[in-house]
Design brief:
By secondary structure, the chain is α/β, with parallel strands linked by helices. The chain folds into 2 domains: 190 residues, Rossmann fold; 101 residues. It is built from 10 helices and 13 strands. Strands 1, 2, 3, 4, 5, 6, 7, 8, 9, 10, 11, 12 and 13 form a 13-stranded mixed beta sheet that branches.
């Protein structure tokens, strides 16, 4: 209930109130002071580090974008690695994430990236240490999944991902609004990646040349614990005749539910969980029929006793001309 009220404040008509407004001033002051004190790690200065982040709390589509960037680098035979804090994992120390690393140790998103891309993935609360480890292991380019606000991590390029549907909410900073930083922070980023129609964002005209539209397109429907896989557009035929429950532990679960509707699935139940939720068998008690989830959720549910569970994989689509431009721009720092 508290989370719903907060979302109504951030993205609806509910006013923040005196307490949230006071806390916003505290947050803003502390964040500004940290930015002033931040000193980039000198050992990493000038290295090709690309930060993919956002200025709002909650999911915007960063991880699918990182996966697509890894694919682009692989096509160019450029050795890449990914660094992340590994939100939602049990510890904060350094972990080298591989395809068989438990999600609770490496984090759901790092594990998903490692499996989908086959690149080295390093998680560490000390992201600078993770980046150093990546370069020492032979990476030519390091992608940071999140970290736009971690200014001690040097970067040659910043990509800020924005959810076009949610936008910037009421335009206020945490906790009165969804912003981690003021909207003016966009003036300094290299590219604004709009997850959806950028026309919904109502950005200043001077930023338009740096806005790139990204679309998350469903690709494959996979059954957990089995080799069975189908094209995403066959989802209605695959689920015909049995009840379906969609679960999502995301920053914006409604995006997943809407995607299922666009694929033609209807009449399904919805269960939303907090972002990076650690699933247990009890979360699925009483559910009958098929269970539909995201790939990010699936890596945390593989060991559970789920007989009829499926994950919907998505891929990030970007303009080909921008992809070529991004590679060319990145080569200038290598």
């Amino acid at each position: 209930m508290k989370e719903q009220r907060l979302l109504e404040t951030w993205y609806g008509e509910r006013p923040p109130g005196l307490l949230l407004s006071a806390l916003e001033r505290v947050y803003s002051g502390v964040a500004a002071a940290r930015r002033r004190r931040a000193r980039p790690d000198p050992d990493l200065e000038g290295r090709p580090i690309v930060v993919v982040g956002n200025i709002t709390a909650g999911g915007t589509g960063k991880t699918p974008l990182v996966i697509r960037l890894c694919e682009l680098l692989a096509a160019e035979d450029i050795p890449a690695a990914v660094v992340s804090r590994g939100h939602g994992r049990s510890g904060s120390g350094a972990v080298s994430v591989g395809a068989n690393t438990p999600a609770e140790e490496g984090g759901d998103e790092p594990l998903l990236i490692a499996r989908r891309c086959g690149v080295p993935v390093y998680v560490d609360a000390d992201r600078e240490a993770a980046a150093r480890a990546a370069f020492e292991a032979g990476a030519a380019v390091v992608l940071s999944d999140d970290g736009l606000q971690r200014l001690t991590l040097p970067r040659c390029m910043e990509l800020c991902v924005v959810d076009a549907v949610r936008g910037f909410g009421n335009g206020r900073q945490l906790p009165a609004g969804p912003l981690r930083e003021p909207i003016e922070r966009l003036d300094a980023v290299d590219w604004i990646i709009s997850n959806g129609d950028p026309g919904l964002l109502d950005l200043p005209s001077e930023l338009e040349s740096r806005v790139v539209r990204m679309q998350l397109a469903p690709t494959t429907l996979r059954r957990l614990g089995a080799s069975e896989a189908l094209p995403a557009d066959q989802i209605t035929a695959a689920m015909e005749g049995r009840p379906v429950t969609a679960v999502a532990g995301l920053g914006h679960p409604e995006r997943f539910f809407t995607t299922l509707e666009h694929l033609g699935l209807s009449g399904f139940d919805r269960k939303a969980f907090p972002d990076h939720h650690a699933y247990t068998d009890s979360d699925f008690e009483g559910i009958e029929g098929a269970i539909m989830m995201t790939a990010k959720d699936a890596v945390k549910c593989e060991k559970l006793a789920l007989e009829d569970a499926w994950c919907l994989e998505v891929g990030a689509r970007l303009p080909p001309e921008w992809e070529r431009q991004w590679i060319d721009q990145l080569r200038e720092f290598m």
